[in-house]
Amino acid sequence: MRRMLPQYEPDAGYPEIVHFKWWLDSLNKISPITKIMIKFGTYFWNLVEKNHWKSIQDWMKGWGIKMERSAYKKIPSAADTPIDLQQAREVWETWRFHDFQPAETFDNGIEPGSSLEEFIANSQSYQSNLIQFGTECYRRAKYTNVTGLIQFDFCDPWPAVTWSVVDYWRIPKIAFDGLRRAMQPVLPSFKLPEKIVPEKATQVSFYVVNDFLEAFSEAVCEWHVEGGGGNIASASFTVNIPADSVSTETKLTLPSLRTGRYKLSVEVFAKGKIIGENWYELKIK
Question: Which of 210, 56, 42, 228 is nearest to 140 (CA)?
Answer without folding.
Answer: 210
